[in-house]
Amino acid sequence: MNTGVRKDWDTYFMDIAYMVSTRSRCSRRHVGAVLVQGKKLLGTAYNGAPMGVPDCLEAGCMISEEYELIVKDGKEEMIKKQRCVRTIHAEQNLLLFTDRADREGSSVYVTDEPCWTCANMLANSGIVEIIYHRPYPKDTSKVRQMMEQKGITFRSLSTYEPPKETIMTVLN
């Protein structure tokens, strides 16, 4: 039933990013990304293994562990990060399958806050704005700082609610 009320653009594009994420076959996290110029959709991507290579559901996750020293409230703290290295992240796939000319001045809607590597790539891609929903606290402070330095708008849609059919349990 249509109530006549239209979704705002942020909700519309984030809904699309979540729908795109349903193509992912990663058992740890489904991530979708959407490239938008103004109000025009230019590309979509999701996380997954390279084409023609067994994915996480077929071959299992390929977990890499790393440790990072951070300073929190004046204290040094070692944090452990686990990442699946079998998959190409949604943001990386978006950059691989879109043209630089289309990215200049564009926005990226992504279901999850970009990790450090993806943030670095996005920072050099020509985009001017990143909008995300789910936080990725392992890299938040350094990603946010870099986006400020680059002048890239970096914002969270914390009150956004994804379409129910797209929700999965996220493993950290």
Topology of helices and strands:
Blueprint: H1 9-21, E1 32-37, E2 40-46, H2 56-59, E3 63-72, E4 75-84, H3 90-96, H4 100-103, E5 107-112, H5 116-123, E6 129-134, H6 140-150, E7 153-156
Parallel strand pairs: 5-6, 6-7
Antiparallel strand pairs: 1-2, 1-5, 3-4
Helix pairs in contact: 5-6
InterPro entries: APOBEC/CMP_deaminase_Zn-bd, CMP_dCMP_dom, Cytidine_deaminase-like, dCMP_deaminase, dCMP_deaminase-rel, Deoxycytidylate_deaminase_dom
Cofactor: Zn(2+)
Protein name: dCMP deaminase family protein
Short précis:
InterPro entries: APOBEC/CMP_deaminase_Zn-bd, CMP_dCMP_dom, Cytidine_deaminase-like, dCMP_deaminase, dCMP_deaminase-rel, Deoxycytidylate_deaminase_dom. This protein is an alpha/beta fold.
Salient structural properties:
172 residues, alpha/beta, five-stranded mixed sheet, two-stranded antiparallel sheet, 6 helices, 27% helix, dCMP_deaminase-rel
How does this model look, in words?
This is dCMP deaminase family protein. Residues 8-154 form the CMP/dCMP-type deaminase domain. It comes from Paenibacillus polygoni. Its cofactor is Zn(2+). Keywords: Hydrolase, Metal-binding, Zinc. By secondary structure, this protein is of the alpha/beta class. It contains six helices and seven strands. It has helices at residues 9-21, 56-59, 90-96, 100-103, 116-123, 140-150; strands at residues 32-37, 40-46, 63-72, 75-84, 107-112, 129-134, 153-156. It has a five-stranded mixed beta sheet with strand order 2-1-5-6-7, with helices on both faces. Strands 3-4 form a two-stranded antiparallel ribbon. β6 (129-134), α6 and β7 form a beta-alpha-beta unit. The longest helix has 13 residues, at 9-21. The protein starts with 8 loop residues before the first helix and ends in a 16-residue tail after the last strand. 33% of the residues are buried. The model has no long low-confidence stretch (mean pLDDT 91).
